[in-house]
Structure formats: structure tokens, C-alpha cells
From TrEMBL:
This is Acyl-CoA reductase. It comes from the Bacteria. GO terms for molecular function: oxidoreductase activity. InterPro entries: Ald_DH/histidinol_DH (IPR016161).
Length: 345
């Protein structure tokens, strides 16, 4: 594999995405038309993949897939001494969720055997074809129905699925990811703009991603009305039938069980200590001192993808409001360095 050519080609993919989304001339009119049709088909196949959410995911990749940034990132790692076949089992909870893994496999010098999710089977193959077209000699990859003759595996699934995968792939090197979610910590000093950006971290992709915030920590004197006021920009989520079904169901359950909750006709706030919350529901708790949050984070660190905040959380390392779903190239799912894993395959 020509590492330099692969990086240049991936940079060209990023350039194509930026121009496509900005409705600028990419120089590839036929590809633009094919891509536009494909994005519409993707939403038909998976209603969670709205055009807004697909384009947000594409924009996030377009911003980071710039040749200089890619070179800087990849330059931190050794290139594989021998080329191996790495099975990659992709998730489909949000658009392009597995594309970063494919980038890692190829840029580390290996060949990905791609097991697509039935929920996201159109967009990633197009991007791989695009990358191959922009790369002299083409990118080597295989889309497969069943993994065979692989040297290592990267897989993403639920906790139950992970147990099965760990057993099934016990005889080869594997990176198996499980359920994760993110939390946000408010200090009470946030302005309205920051709370609106927090809304993006909650509602982007309808809350289906591991980087979405499902759990809030707020000071004792914080007014919940501030959240409802600043989340109104996202009220249209309730017009999506699948999201609305979740909201109606959980609201009915809490009413029947006489559980206290707050809602604003499109989301539910529930005072609850659990880390994970159902779709359309956000758990929250009040704290007196940040050490209480630290204890919680330490207890649940294996299930927390990220901590979102305003940047002044003492020892807690945090992601700034609004940036949870726009990770840099060197920010990895489950906080496990994928490139480092691939360097020892």
C-alpha cells in the first residue's frame, strides 16, 4: 500500500465533501448526482438517517479530512510491518459511525473486510469508492457478508452483542466495543448560547450516538426552565414519528407509574441516578460539589464516552458544549486508540 497516496486520496475525499455540502463545483458532476440520489435512498432505508443528520455527519468528516491534519495524525504511529486482513463489523445507529475505523485500518497499512450494518449500507460504500477513485492504484478493501480468513477484528455493538462477539472471536486479536454514552456537567455559569449548544449534544442524531449526552449534572440552584427555554430550537424532533413514539411511550409509562418528571412536549427530564436513559429522556441529578461528579465518572468510566462542559471542571477532562459529535481524528470510540491497536496486528 502507498501510504502517501492513501493520505492524499483521503484528503481529496474531504475536499469533495466540503464542496458538495457547500453546493460548490466539485469537478465530478456525475458523482455529485449519484451521491445526492444515494443520500435520499439512505433515508428511505433507515428513517433515522434524515438528510439533516446525514449531512451533519458528512460535514464533520469533511472538516477533519484535510491532508495536513491526516498526515499529522497518522505520523504519530508506526506503519504496519506486514499487511493483514482486519474484519470490521460496523454499527448503524448513526450515519457513518464506522467510517473512522475503516480509515484507521487502511492508513495503518492493512486491508479491511467490511461487514456493513443493514441500517447503513449505502453511504460508506460510496465513500470507499470515492477514496479509491481519488487514489492512484486504488484502495484495497472488501465488503463481505461473513468474516472469514481475518487476522484481527474490530466490532461495535450492544453489551449483549459484545459478549457473543468476544466468544466468537476469542482466537484472534480483537477490539470489541460496548454500549457507551456521554454526560454533561453544568456549573450554573453557562450562558444561553452554551445551553443551546448543549442541546445539539443531546438531540443531534436524535440522541442515538454514544457521544450524545443522556445524563446531566446540575447545581442545586439551577432552574430547569433554562434548559427547556434553550432547547426549543430542537423542538422539531417530535415531528419524527420514531422519536415521537419513544416520547409518547415513556411519558405514558412514567404517568402510569406515578414517577415524577418534567417535560416540554418533546423531551422528558427525569431526576434519576442512572447513567443511561431511554430515547427522548434525559436523566439528571443535582450536586453540591464537583467531587460528587468525579466519583460518578470514576464509577462509570467504562461506560462513559465523554464529559461535556464549559471547560472549567477542575480535574474532569471535558468536551466543550456543542462539540460532542464533532470529534477530531485522534479521538477514538470507547477511548481506545484504534491506531495503536492496529499497530500490533
Amino acid at each position: 500500500m502507498d501510504k502517501d497516496a492513501n493520505i492524499r486520496g483521503l484528503g481529496d475525499v474531504g475536499n469533495f465533501l466540503r464542496k458538495f455540502l457547500a453546493k460548490e463545483n466539485t469537478g465530478y458532476e456525475a458523482l455529485e448526482e449519484e451521491f445526492q440520489d444515494l443520500l435520499l435512498k439512505a433515508e428511505v432505508e433507515n428513517p433515522w438517517f434524515t438528510q439533516e443528520n446525514i449531512r451533519y455527519a458528512l460535514r464533520s468528516f469533511g472538516e477533519v479530512l484535510q491532508e495536513d491534519e491526516i498526515r499529522h495524525w497518522v505520523g504519530k504511529y508506526p506503519f504496519a510491518s506486514s499487511q493483514k486482513k482486519v474484519g470490521v463489523i460496523l454499527a448503524g445507529n448513526i450515519p457513518l459511525v464506522g467510517f473512522h475505523d475503516l480509515i484507521c485500518v487502511i492508513l495503518s497499512g492493512h486491508i479491511p473486510l467490511i461487514k456493513l450494518s443493514s441500517k447503513d449500507r449505502l453511504i460508506i460504500p460510496f465513500l470507499m469508492k470515492l477514496w479509491s477513485r481519488f487514489t492512484p492504484g486504488e484502495i484495497v478493501y472488501h465488503i463481505v457478508e461473513k468474516l472469514q480468513n481475518h487476522d484481527a477484528v474490530i466490532a461495535t455493538g450492544s453489551n449483549n452483542t459484545a459478549r457473543y462477539l468476544e466468544f466468537y472471536f476469542k482466537d484472534c486479536l480483537s477490539l470489541i466495543r460496548k454500549n457507551r454514552t456521554s454526560i454533561a456537567v453544568l456549573t450554573g455559569d453557562e450562558d444561553d448560547k452554551q445551553l443551546q449548544l448543549l442541546g445539539r449534544d443531546i438531540f443531534q442524531y436524535f440522541g442515538l450516538g454514544c457521544r450524545n449526552v443522556t445524563r446531566l449534572f446540575i447545581p442545586h440552584n439551577f432552574q430547569l426552565e433554562r434548559l427547556f427555554k434553550n432547547f426549543m430550537h430542537f423542538k422539531d424532533v417530535i415531528h419524527h414519528h420514531k422519536y415521537a413514539n419513544n416520547y409518547d411511550y415513556h411519558r405514558a409509562v412514567y404517568l402510569l407509574n406515578q414517577e415524577p418528571f418534567w417535560d416540554n412536549d418533546f423531551m422528558i427530564l427525569r431526576e434519576n441516578e442512572e447513567l443511561f436513559s431511554p430515547l427522548s429522556v434525559i436523566n439528571f441529578s443535582r450536586y453540591s460539589h464537583l467531587t460528587e461528579v468525579e466519583v460518578f465518572v470514576n464509577k462509570h468510566q467504562q461506560a462513559i464516552q465523554g464529559v461535556v462542559g464549559g471547560g472549567n471542571l477542575g480535574p474532569l477532562s471535558c468536551i466543550l458544549f456543542g462539540e460532542a459529535q464533532s470529534p477530531a481524528l485522534d479521538v477514538y470510540a470507547d477511548n481506545v486508540d484504534t491506531m495503536e491497536f492496529l499497530s500490533v496486528v
